[in-house]
Amino acid sequence: MNRAAMARASVALSLPLAVGIAAGHPAYGAVAALGALNGVIGDTADAYRLRVLNIAVPQVAGAAGVVVGSLVYDSGWVTVATLTAVALMSGMISTIGTVASSSGLLLLLNAVIGAGLPLPGDWWTAPVLLSLGGLGVLVLALLAWPLRAGLAERASVAAAYRSVAELLAHGTDPDRYGAARTEVTHALNHAYDLLLARRARHHARSRELTRLVTQLNAINPVAEAAPTLLLASRALPPEVPDAVRLLADDIEAGRTEPRRPALPAPTTDAGRAVEHALQHAAEVVADPDVDPWGLDYRTSGPTRLRVRTARAVREASLSAGSWRYGLRLALCIALAQGFVSLVPVPRSYWIALTVTFVLKPDYGSVFSRAVLRATGTVAGLLLAAAVLAGVPHGWWDVPVLAGLAVLIPALSPRGYGYQTAAITPVILLLSDVLNRDGTDLLLPRLLDSLLGCAIVVVAGYLLWPESWGTRVGHRLAQAVTDTAAYVDAAFGAGVDPSDRTRMRRRLYRDLSTVRTEFQRALTEPPPTGRRAAAWWPLVIAVERIVDATTAARVSVHHGAPSPSAAETRQVSRQLRELAEHLREPEGTTTLPRHPTSPANSVLDPVRHEVAAARSLAGPR
To answer: What is the C-alpha end-to-end distance of the chain, expressed in Å?
Structure first.
C-alpha cells in the first residue's frame, strides 16, 4: 500500500471541509473537497514533475467544465445540448494521451456536476474552490520534492536493471523466461516514459537526466543478449545476475564509484555476449561525467513536448477513432440528460456522472466497467448508508471523511470496482453537506447508477459493432509486419546498431500493447472473450520470433557467419505473408509453403519460430 498517498488523501479531503466548517461555510469546504477528490484520483505518478502535470493540468480542465455546467444549471434542453457538446469534446481530448484523458474526464465530470448540482456562491466561486482543493493535493504531493528530487527516476532505472537480472537468472528456463521477458519490457517502458515522455524543452542540458538515460540505454545490450541463453540452454553463473543487481543498487543510491564486475570466464558465445554487454554497462554506471549534448534521445521518440503535443492534437482531430469515441460519449450523455429532462429525477446529475465514469474505453473494457460500476456502487452505498445514518452533521463529518479518503488510494490499485466502492461514499457525504438529503437519496442513487450503466451498455457498446470485437488481431498483424522489417534490419548491411536497438525496443513495446489489449478483450462478454483467447498462442509465438532474431544478431556480432541475403528475404517474406493472413477478417486462406532452407544457419531458430507461428495461424 502507498501509505504516503493514503495520508495525502486523508489530509487533502478533510482539511478543506474543516476550514469551511470553521468559517461557517461548510458548503464551500465541501466543494473544495470535491476538487481535492479529483486531485487524489489523479495522484498516481512516481516522478514529481509528472505529478505536476497529472494533477494540475486536469484541474484547469475541471475548472472550465464547472463554469460551463453552472451557466446552464437547470436550463432544460439547453443543458442537454451543452453537455452533449462538452461530451464530444471530452471524448476526442481523451484519445490524445494519459494526461489528456484525465483532463477530458474532469472537463465533462465537473460540467455534469455544475449543471445538475446547485453550487454555492457566484459563478466563479465553484471553479476557484475546486482549483484550490486540487492545488492542496498538489502541494502535499510536492512537499518532499526538494529532499527526494530524482529518486523516482533513479528507482525506475534501477528497477529495469533488476528485471534484467531476473531475466538472466531464469534465461534457460522456458517456463519462467516469458514472464521475466515481459517484466523487462514493462520496466524499460516505464523507465523510458518516466525519463523522457514529459521532459521539458531544455532537459537535454540536465547532467542527471542524461546520466540516467545513458545508464538505461546501457542495459539494453544486456537484455538483447539474454535470448541467446535460452537457445544455448546453458545457465549463467549466479555471479552474473548478482553483478547486475549491484549495479542497480549503485544507480538507486546515485553512486558512481568504478565497479568492475568479478565474473567467471565465459565458456559459451552466449556467456561472452552477456559478459561484454555487462562490462560496458558497469563502465557507464560508474561514469560521473556524461556529455548532456552527446546523448541520442531517439530511443524514446520525439524530444520536444510541444511538438509531440501539437502532433497528438492534430492526429486526434483527424482520427476516425477519436470522433467515434467522442460521438459514443456524446450520444450517451444526450440520452442521460434527455431522460432527466423528461422524467423528474432528484439530483439528476448522477446518471450522467455514471456515464462519464464508465464510458472510458482507454481505461479498459466498457462492458466490464459497467458491471464493476454497478457492483462497486452497491458496496459504496452500503458504506454510505452507515455513515449518513450514524454520523451527525457538523464536525463529525471531518474525521469520517478523513477515514473514507484513505480508502481511495488503498483500494484503487485493486481495480475499478474497488475504486468505485471507495469513491461513492465520499461523493455522497460531500453531497449531503451541500444539500442535507441524508439517506433519502441512497436508493435513487443506486437506480441512477444502474440506469447510467444500462445507457452505456446499450448506446455506448451494443450500438457500435466495432466495440464488440477485439483489436488483438490487427495490432498483432502490425507487430508481425514490424518484425519482418526488424529481420531485414538485423542482418542488412549499413544499418546503424542504434537503429536496430530502437526497432527492437519498439517491437517489444508494441507487443506489450498487444498483451494489454488481449487482457482487455478477455473481459468482454462471449463470444468476444473466447475469440480473444485464441490469439494468445500467436502473441507468444511472435515474441519468440523477436527473441530468436535478437539472439541470431548477437551471435553474428560475436563471430557466427552472417546469413545470406536470400535467407533473410525468405524469412521476412514469410512474416509478411503471416501479417496479411492475420489481417483477413476470417483468416480462411492457407499460407503458401516454402522450400526448406539450408541447415546449420544462424537463422535456423528464427525459421523454426516462424514456422511455428504460421502453423498456429492456420484457417480460423
So the answer is: 44
At 64, give phi and psi (nearest 5°): -65, -40
User: Distance between CA 307 and CA 201 in Å, rounded?
Assistant: 10
Question: What pTM was estimated for this model as a whole?
Answer: 0.75
DSSP 204: G
What is the mean predicted confidence (pLDDT) over 360-374? 78
What's the CA gap between 62 and 58, in Å, rounded? 6
CA torsion angle 107 109 112 115 (round to 10): -60
> Which pLDDT tens digit goes with each residue over 3-20?
888 999 999 999 999 999
Q: At what angle do helices 604-616 and 565-583 cross, to 10 degrees?
A: 20
Alpha-carbon span 108 to 89, nearest angstrom: 9
pLDDT digits (tens, 9 = 90+) for 90-112: 999 888 878 888 899 999 999 99
Q: What is the DSSP letter of 238?
A: T
Residue 575: the pLDDT is: 92
DSSP codes joined into one string, 513-569: HHHHHHHHHHTSPTTHHHHHHTTHHHHHHHHHHHHHHHHHHHHHHTTPPPPPHHHHH
Using CA atoms of 61, 63, 68, 71 in order, give the dihedral in degrees to the nearest 10. 180
Residue 143 has pLDDT above 90, yes or no: no
Residue 593 CB: number of other CB atoms within 10 A?
8
Three cell numbers, residue 309: 503535443
